[in-house]
Every structure is written in structure tokens, then in C-alpha cells.
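Dear support,

I submitted the protein below through the web form. The confirmation email said the job was done, but the results page showed an empty box. After a refresh the structure appeared. I'm attaching both so you can tell me whether what I see now is the final result or a partial one.
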Amino acid sequence: MAAKQAATLAAFGTQHIGRGVARSTEHVWAAGQGSWMHSMDGKKYLDFTCGIGVTNLGHCHPKVTKAAQEQCAKIVHAQINIGYHNPAITLVEKLLPVMPDKSLDTFLFVNSGSEAVESAVKLARHATKKQNIIVMQGGFHGRTLATASMTRSKTIYSAGFGPLLSGVFATPFPYEYHYALAHGKPQSSSLSDACADDALAALRLLLKQQSAPADTAAIVLEPVLGEGGYVPASARYLRGLRDICDEHGILLIIDEVQSGFGRTGTYFAIEQANVRPDILIMAKGIANGFPLAGIASRKELMDRQTPGSMGGTYSGNAVSCAAAVACADVMQTEGILDNVKARGEQLRSGLSALQSHAKVGPLIGDIRGLGLMLGLEFSRSAPASIATKVQKAAHDRGLLLLTTSVFETMRFIPPLTISEAEMKQGVEIFGESLKAAASS
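What the results page shows now:
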């Protein structure tokens, strides 16, 4: 009976929900708890997707759920143009101590990552009185018209939607695995440095040939490419970007929509390079599934904007902010970053062990990432569409995984609260799925 009802609902959704929204399954989800998702037809799945890095603290974390429930009974919508509300003020108090630089002391809350990216661009253009934006090849910043114009991970996000936002230029991202392949050398620290230096040289050339510093408001990048393949930028590259920005009066915008809030083992990935952003973009894990995003910058920049030029009807929703406050408390009291380190090492070790397997080892080209934001890219010798085949095989065995990028790549984004036993189970299922897909 439940399976029939689920099938009926899925068919209704297929008929009436816009086709532009892609789905990796046709499940109708009934519940989520911790690291697990339950479908209406009675099946249970270990979730290594986290709603694309959103439910960092697991599904329906009791403290986050309680905070949202209590706020719903007080006030749901307190419009930001009319006054402050306590959850937003409290959230700022919680965020200030964990910002990657003390200069990031002023906040704007919005609803989604795309809105936050657009807010960052508006701030940069207004503050510098310059129009151009430089983004990274492989970067993803959203699906709105402006953010799709900035996205370079896949053409699907912009194809057919032109004309796009003008004044956007792309520079190479230091993709070390492909750099090593192009040079016919194994990955190493010296090759990493060379990759970073070449990417910085390409950026300097862009500033001489395509977008003069006098016309360039900001450089925008994810410190770990998300949709582009879970590729981390080296500290050498990020520090080089900071130097170029300082040299030319360009703002450095760090997009931590997916990599923020503990995902990479530190509160924000940029901390690991000890680099100061001029503007920090955040979303996803901030409220564990409630719609909330934002930017942080220094007061001197933010206060240049005319009152009324930023924000929106639902920006900084009270329930979402209350959930975010609870998330901040959980991060501090439940040892989340310690668990990320331990489970990240466990995941990397398990994936690396597969590289020594006689049958599937040669199919694995690169394992990379930080914390619990890991990517596995298949080698050029792997069968066509291997990533999609592995994803399906894993699903059939009770594990939810996502592919990413234009290359054959799996991404691993389990909850930051995942247990040692759950991680072991997930790695085992992945190994079985890889072997099955390789044999198909």
C-alpha cells in the first residue's frame, strides 16, 4: 500500500513539477533522522549527500528542531525593514567569534546562497565603483541569472538563458590532478606550487589583457570547488590571490556556501590558508536546512550602502535564525570539528584502500578534499559514465551519493555528526558499488 501511494505521488510530481529541477531518484521522502533518510515506500538510506551539504548536523537534529519549534510559537516573520528580532541579533553574536578574520564584523542575512552571492557582488561594485568581476574556471555560484553568469562548472546552468550578466571574466583554477596529467608527472608538493604559480600568472595576464585592475571590483572563488569537482585551492594560491588583490585594490570574495560551517574541518575552509576575505559568503550548513544565507564584511564597506538598497521580504527569517543559533551552539558543545577530523581521516583511508585493489584501483585517479568534503575522480581509463553507474549501484545498496563536475567524479558529503560505524558501512557499500559498476 505504501509503495503504491509513493508511486502515485511520484507520478503526480513528474507531471506537475517543472522539468528544470533535476532529481537523482524518484523517491518520495517520508522522514530523515541523523545520517538516514526514509522513503515513503518503507526503504532506508544512509545519506552521504546532506541535501548537497546542507544538513551538516544530520537530519532533524533535536536541538535545532526544538529551537525552530519554539520560535514558531513566538514569531515567524519579523520583517527586517521594520525592526530587529532577537534570533538575528543572537546569531550575529554567535558568528562574530568564528569569523575567519576579525575585520568581518558586519552582516547581511538573506535566504539562499545565490542571493548571498548577488549581495556580495552588489557590495563590491558599490564600494569600489568598479564593475568587473573575476571568477574561477570550474566555480559554481548559483542558478539565478547573475550567479549563472558567474558559474563555470557546467554550461547547463547558463545555456539558453542569455544574454548573461556583463563584466564577468574567468581565470584558471589550480586543478592539481589535471595539471599533473597535462605535465605527465605525479602529484607532489613541488608540482602543487607550480600549479598555483601558473594559475596566478594566468590571472595577472587576465588583468593586463581583459579586465584592467581599474575596472575590476572583485575576485570571487570557492576555496574548495563544489560543483567543479571538490578541488581544494592550495594555501600558496589563496595567499597569492590576496597579494594580487591588495596590490590592485581589488576585493577578495570567498564563497563558503558549501565549504563553510565545519564541512572542511575548520569553521571556514579559508582559515586553513590564513587568508583574509574582504567579503565572506555563507549559506547551506548555517541553519541545517532552514532557508538562510548571508554575507559578512567590514563595517566600513557595508555602511557605504544606501538604506533600502539591500535585503528582501523574507531575509533573515526569525525561525531560520533561531535554527542557526542552535546550530552554532551544537557546533561548540558536541565536538563537531573533532568528529569531522576523525571521520574525514576514516573516509579518506577507506577510499585510499580501494586504490590498492587489483580490479578497481586503476579506475581511481584522484582522491582529494578537506575534512568531510571529499571528491574521488575516476581515471581516464575508467569506463564511460562510471560515476553515474556507481551512484546507481550505491543507491540500490542503500547509500545516497552524488556525482559532480564535467569529469567522472563522486562527491562525499556525509553529516558532520556521522558515527564511526555509519562511516564504515558507507565506505563498504561504496566499495561494493564500485566493483559492481566496474563489472557491468
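Response: this is the final, complete result; the empty box was a page-load delay. The chain has two domains: 2-60+335-439, 65-333.
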